[in-house]
Write a structure and sequence with these properties.
Blueprint: E1 10-14, H1 27-39, E2 45-47, H2 59-73, E3 79-82, H3 88-101, E4 105-108, H4 118-129, E5 136-140, H5 142-145, H6 155-160, E6 165-170, H7 175-185, E7 190-192, H8 198-206, E8 211-215, H9 220-231, H10 235-249, H11 264-274, H12 292-305, H13 307-320
């Protein structure tokens, strides 16, 4: 397999997992969230990634989340299921379930906490990608894994050699390292990274790259429009959408993916609740963002960025069509 075996591109949300007031998985909320994403015309959806709080779910809950999301989307856009785990065997079990549930692909970081070497990372992915015949997305997430794969010479080329690897989600936090990833392997695998700004636009137009997988997807009206403009080679429109996206995201998330007003997932769900979207609560060890001053700051960002109006307009078009 290689990049040409999938059509993964554009703006994708990394879906949060809605939990209700009792901290149980909110199946109705998750179903509604998938419908929202489809209506916003995203390019695909990732579930049970970092934003999906896989780390606080049981294996049975992770399987249930995958099943609900896949059923709700019903083939209208690709669904990739995160299967990150401490061992390749455990991740492989989740990958096999994802295949049986109808997923379009699977994704995993290297095993968290372990801080593996380059050889150990290759061995891990070789075992995991052999668990199914699904296309596989490698996920570089130094913030959560404590190893940055982009810093290991030749590692991405070795991973691209694995038969099922068709994409890399490079969330390094180091933009120049992400740029090196594009240069090294984007002719062989899809590269999702940080492109939703003017520098990213220049990269997409001249060097390569395929999309953003964005925590929560609240910026979808801007991000989807940006990638449509990129596809149309409408540079002026793409710049405008990138600037509007940065007017929202740049006031919420730092370049290293930490949150400005709280921990990233708690902050995200607070914004979703302000927008009336099915984000729900977080689960321990995370804590919901309840500080009045911070909530007011988030409300200001939502209104000043124009994301509420843009979302409403896009949904009105979707429902009219």
């Amino acid at each position: 397999m290689n990049r040409d075996d999938v059509a993964w591109a554009g703006y994708w949300p990394a879906a949060p997992t809605p939990f209700d007031s009792d901290r149980a998985v909110d199946v109705d909320g998750l179903t509604a969230l998938m419908e929202l994403y489809v209506a916003l015309r995203v390019g695909g959806v990732l579930v049970n990634g970092s934003t999906g709080e896989w780390f606080s779910q049981s294996p049975a809950e992770r399987r249930r989340v995958a099943e609900v999301a896949i059923d709700a989307v019903d083939g209208r856009v690709p669904v990739i299921v995160g299967v990150t785990a401490y061992t390749a065997d455990e991740a492989g079990d989740l990958a096999r379930h994802a295949k049986d549930a109808g997923a379009d692909g699977v994704l995993a970081t290297p095993p968290p906490y372990v801080h593996p070497s380059g050889d150990e990372i290759v061995a891990f992915y070789r075992t995991l990608t052999a668990a199914t015949d699904l296309p596989f997305m490698v996920y570089n997430w130094p913030r959560g894994v404590a190893v940055d794969m982009s810093e290991i010479d030749g590692l991405y080329q070795r991973l691209a050699d694995l038969d099922r690897v068709v994409a890399i989600k490079d969330s390094t936090g180091d933009w120049l390292s992400m740029l090196s990833t594009v240069e090294a392997v984007s002719d062989r695998v899809r590269v999702f990274g940080s492109f939703l700004h003017r520098r990213g636009l220049a990269t997409l137009l001249e060097l390569g790259g395929d999309g953003n997988i964005d925590g929560g997807g609240v910026g979808a009206p801007f991000g989807v429009s940006f990638y449509q403009a990129v596809r149309d080679r409408d540079v002026a429109a793409a710049r405008e959408w990138a600037d509007r996206y940065q007017g929202l995201s740049g006031r919420l998330i730092r370049p290293d993916y930490s949150g400005i007003h709280g921990s990233p997932i708690a902050q995200l769900k607070a914004v979703m609740n302000i927008l009336g979207q099915p984000g729900g609560t977080v689960r321990p060890p995370l804590l919901d963002l309840v500080d009045d001053q911070r909530i007011r700051s988030l409300q200001r960002i939502v209104e000043e960025s124009g994301i509420r109006r843009a979302t409403d307009e896009r949904l009105a078009v979707a429902h009219a069509g």
